[in-house]
Automatic annotation (TrEMBL):
SUPFAM superfamilies: DHS-like NAD/FAD-binding domain, Thiamin diphosphate-binding fold (THDP-binding)
Keyword Isomerase among UniProt keywords: no
Protein's name according to its UniProt entry: Scytonemin biosynthesis protein ScyA
Pfam families cross-referenced by the UniProt entry: TPP_enzyme_C (PF02775), TPP_enzyme_M (PF00205), TPP_enzyme_N (PF02776)
Record domain Thiamine pyrophosphate enzyme TPP-binding: where: 418-561
Residue ranges constituting the Thiamine pyrophosphate enzyme N-terminal TPP-binding domain according to the UniProt record: 33-143
Taxonomic lineage: Bacteria, Bacillati, Cyanobacteriota, Cyanophyceae, Nostocales
Gene: scyA
Keyword Translocase: no
Similarity comment: Belongs to the TPP enzyme family.
CDD domains found in the cross-reference section: TPP_enzymes, TPP_PYR_POX_like
Gene Ontology CC annotation, any one: acetolactate synthase complex
Length: 600
């Protein structure tokens, strides 16, 4: 085994963080309730929106949030609220709040918060809990260590970067100082404040609350790390592997690629950071990705790969050894626990740094490539068979129409749900700009896009489109919430009366007897029953007109597309990954065709 390079040192630099000071000098003493103080301090942390479901145990806190300058949106399910808060953060860059009542209110939100942590969002959960004197007495929706495990829910850990139960108003200064510091850190930050019902109306002296102005911490690579990176990348041709963590460095990455002639590939979450129509773009890796990537990696023209802001997990790499170039990786990430882990045996020079700061420093020292240009493979453009029947709609025809009307014809954010919706969208859609496409690869919960689209559209005050399966729409959607607040969200439902990723995967693996069918559902009737607009599409010739109608609409809109369930979804490598994990697969009749299948 080749030893890894020694990890580089890092430097911490401080930049002004846009947080207004909370106190004015000489401010007179004033009493607030704990609930009001929390609302005011959240305002000063830059929170503009709170998403949740109300309940009696948090009535005082709900009232305080509602009477603040924050916009408060009441959802139909706490998981939907948490997904919406996550996507609102990515749409604006501002931290968001999720509020829940005690018991099931809080536990319902956990899946969405799990996704927030995995995606790297900045979200604060405010939950109610049972007051100290009533714990262990079988109160309504009791929330305490008598009913729920404390570790990991009410304490910091894998789910929450910071978690605390507030037992006294005197705790507020240090709690909000910790939250301010957490939000100022690069990367995600998910916090949980559990607030007993009785404490919410306790009084706190406003003059004792802290000034929340802090510096925004940026991790810069050391001069030694930059010099070593330049040395390694100058030894031969290299590729750039772009992940979601590099989304704030799109301009710098484009400059680096064009200066050096490097081939560029991206993770599914990294689509659009580097323009997908650029001649140096060789494709998307991983789930729903492109065969052109493997064509490039097998060409033996790449000595090393510069990895920027991706963990190289299974959805991005399938852990394929073919993705490891002879010289290994220069792996840059804000999280020091990421570089070298997914490919533990590969030679890796790890750098902890903010991606934008790293590439800016690299550009100052990286020599321009003077070698003759190398012809690079580009993502395949699958031809759509002409003269096919107009019914039902082939998913690839739907994607072509979405590309034309939504991606190229509007500025809408596009989100794809897990499952076949993910693979069809990731494989076929092309983005030339960052922050236009959102998928979840870490958690991949059904209902993420179906509900998160409401938060994205509301936060950006513009169109957001969710491409979802019928199973996800039946599991969790927030059409009613969008109607209440007149949020211009659009749902494009791939309706095939199946959990089709599971159906196709089981068929491929030769496993019989499992039933993945769903009773046929009319989502237009559901949408109109909730007060939204909708249109059902049965024919391919009607797809573009339906999309144009949805984009032009000023109200929530559902497009129910009856798709061909037998079209095989694209997944370039998922089968090999399953085989490596011990799943015995039956070869498909056409070995060139691979379909996607969820984790087992």
């Amino acid at each position: 085994m080749t030893p890894k390079y020694t990890a580089s040192t890092r430097q911490i630099t401080a930049e002004p963080y846009k947080l207004d000071g909370y106190l004015e000098s000489g401010k007179n003493s004033k009493s607030l309730t704990v609930a009001d103080a929390i609302a005011e301090m959240l305002e000063n942390l830059g929170v503009g929106c709170a998403y949740g479901v109300a309940g009696g145990a948090m009535a005082s806190l709900w009232g305080a949030l509602s009477n603040s300058t924050m916009q408060v949106l009441n959802f139909r399910h706490e998981a939907g609220a948490a997904f919406a808060a996550t996507e609102a953060y990515f749409a604006t860059g501002s931290p968001s709040v999720v509020f829940t009542t005690a018991g099931p209110g809080m536990t319902n939100a956990l899946t969405g918060l799990f996704a927030a942590r995995g995606e790297g969002a900045k979200v604060i959960l405010l939950s109610a809990c049972t007051s100290a004197g009533n714990r262990g007495r079988w109160g309504i929706q009791e929330t305490s260590t008598d009913t729920l495990p404390s570790s990991g829910i009410f304490t910091s850990g894998a789910l929450f970067n910071y978690a605390v139960t507030i037992e006294s108003a005197d705790q507020l200064p240090q709690i909000f100082r910790r939250i301010a510091l957490g939000l100022a850190q690069p990367g995600g930050f998910v916090a949980h404040l559990s607030i007993p019902t009785r404490l919410q109306t306790s009084l706190v002296d406003e003059t004792n609350l802290p000034d929340l102005g802090v510096g925004s911490l940026s991790v810069a690579a050391s001069e030694e790390a930059i010099a070593k990176s330049v040395e390694l990348l100058s030894e031969g041709p290299f590729a750039i592997w772009v992940g979601f963590g590099a989304r704030n460095a799109a301009e710098e990455i484009l400059q680096l690629a064009e200066r050096t002639g490097a081939a560029v590939m991206c993770s599914p979450r990294g689509k659009g950071i580097f323009p997908e129509d650029h001649p140096q773009f060789v494709g998307v890796t991983g789930l729903g990705g492109h065969g052109s990537v493997m064509t490039y990696m097998q060409s033996a023209t790449c000595l090393r790969t510069l990895v920027l802001g991706t963990r190289l997990g299974e959805p991005t790499s399938f852990w394929s050894p073919a993705m490891v170039p002879p010289g290994g990786f220069v792996h840059v990430d804000i999280d020091p626990q990421v570089p070298g882990v997914a490919y533990a045996s590969a030679q890796t020079y790890p750098v902890q740094a903010d991606i934008k700061a790293f590439v800016q420093a690299l550009l100052k020292h990286m020599p321009e490539n003077t070698a003759s240009a190398i012809s690079l493979p580009n993502p395949e453009q699958e031809l759509i068979e002409a003269g096919a029947p107009d019914i039902p709609v082939r998913p690839e025809v739907l994607m072509a129409a979405i590309q034309k009307v939504i991606v190229e014809g509007s500025d809408a954010v596009v989100m794809a749900e897990c499952g076949n919706s993910f693979t069809w969208s990731t494989h076929f859609l092309r983005f030339a700009e960052t922050n236009r496409y959102r998928v979840s690869t870490g958690v991949g919960a059904m209902g993420h896009a179906a509900t998160g689209v409401v938060g994205a559209a509301q936060a950006r005050n513009g169109k957001a489109v969710a491409i979802v399966g019928d199973g996800a729409m039946l599991m969790n959607n927030e059409i009613s919430t969008a109607v209440k607040y007149q949020i211009p969200a659009i749902w494009i439902v791939l309706n095939d009366a199946r959990y089709n990723m599971c159906h196709q995967g089981m068929k491929l693996l030769g496993l019989t007897g499992a039933d993945a069918s769903i009773p046929p559902t009319d989502f237009v009737m559901i949408a109109k029953g909730m007060g939204a607009e909708g249109i059902r599409v049965l024919k391919e010739s009607d797809v573009e007109a339906a999309l144009e109608q949805a984009i032009a609409s000023e109200v929530p809109f559902v497009i129910d597309v009856i798709i061909d369930p037998n079209r095989v979804a694209p997944s370039k490598g998922r089968n090999q990954s399953l085989a490596a994990q011990g799943v015995k697969a039956t070869p498909a009749k056409n070995s060139a065709v691979q379909i996607s299948f969820p984790n087992i």
